[in-house]
Structure formats: structure tokens, C-alpha cells
User: What shape does this take?
Amino acid sequence: MKPMNEGHLAILRRHMVEVVAIHTDLASDEIGKATLDERVMEAMRKVPRHLFVPAPLAPYAYQDMPLPIGFDKTISQPFIVGLMTDLLSPQPHETVLEVGTGLGYQTAILAELSGQVWSIEIVEEFAGDAGVLLHHLGYTNVEIRDGDGSRGWREHAPFDKILVTAAAERPPPALLDQLKPGGRLVMPIGPEGMQRLTIIDKDEAGQTEARDLIPVRFSRLETIT
Assistant: This one.
């Protein structure tokens, strides 16, 4: 069988987004909406997810499921990527901090929708590979470094939005400190087996309010002591 070409992959990518739309509608009671922002859906139609997984897994890149990417990490299920991005609601004028670059798929989605993305990845190999790929794809509004994402990136704070793609029992204090008043943080919160996707909003007085949505399963947020 001959390999898939770009036309085949584009069809699969559109189909992936259609499946995400169905999943969103089915989960509407839990997430409070039946559709995701069209800007998010368009970004997912555009970004070539098959380039952000190990080459042997490229044929499976557009199925609505997580995939292993090495170092006991995964690329998140497309529905979860779309939902977290929609809940974060990044805008073209905003600066976003991402904690957990992986191989850069979520980073690319954020770069499509926001003004600047600062992304931190604890696995040095991932940070390097993601940086090369995102540069190759023309994303000039992304900067990546390896390190402990729980500490944020103070040199570029405060951030309008923060997205954390790993779970912790509570939001890291440094990230809340680096979130602008009026900003939003989205991450999975809770112990192993009891995580829930959580939105944390900071008001203009600096007070935070959290609300949780659906149960999720993410790897734990690693820190460096």
C-alpha cells in the first residue's frame, strides 16, 4: 500500500475535527456548551498533528485518542486539546504560558490563536525537537525552554493565560502569582485517578476562583528540587 499524501491527511484532519465536534456535543451537559469556538476548530483543521507524533504513529494521528511520544508521556486526545484551548480562550493580543510542551502540538494550536506563547518542557529532548519543528512550520511567536514548569517563566510574566498540560493536586503558587489580574489558568487538578479539568480565574483584585469540569487523566506535573 502506498503512503498517505497531504490530501489524504487533510481529509483525516477534517474528520478528526468533526469527531471532536460530536464529542463536544455529547459532553455538553458536563462542559456547559455544545460547541467549541470556531477559531479553535479552524486551528485544529490547520495544524498537522501527524508531524507531532513519532513517525510510526503518524497513521493514527487523527484518531480521537492520546498517543505515546516517549519518556512515558503522551500527546493529548484531540477532544481534550480542543476543550482546554476553548476554555483558555486565548486571544490574538494575549501572551500565553504553556507548561508541558511535549512535542509541540498544543503549542502550535496556542500559537495560531494568541500573540505570544512561552512554553516550558521538563524533558530536554522534547523541548529541542519541538522548537525545531515549530520553527520549521513558521511559528515565530513561540519560545520554548526546558525546565521546571511549576516555577513558571518569571522573566516574561505576567501572563494573560496559562495552560498546564500535566496534573497536580493544587495549582502551583508561582503560576498563580504570574497570572495577570483578569487572567485565566486551565489545568487538571487532583490526585491520581481523581483529576478534574479545572478553570481558575483571577479577578482584578488578585483573588482566584476555581471551577472544575470533567474527569480527566494526565501524567503528573514533574518538578525539579
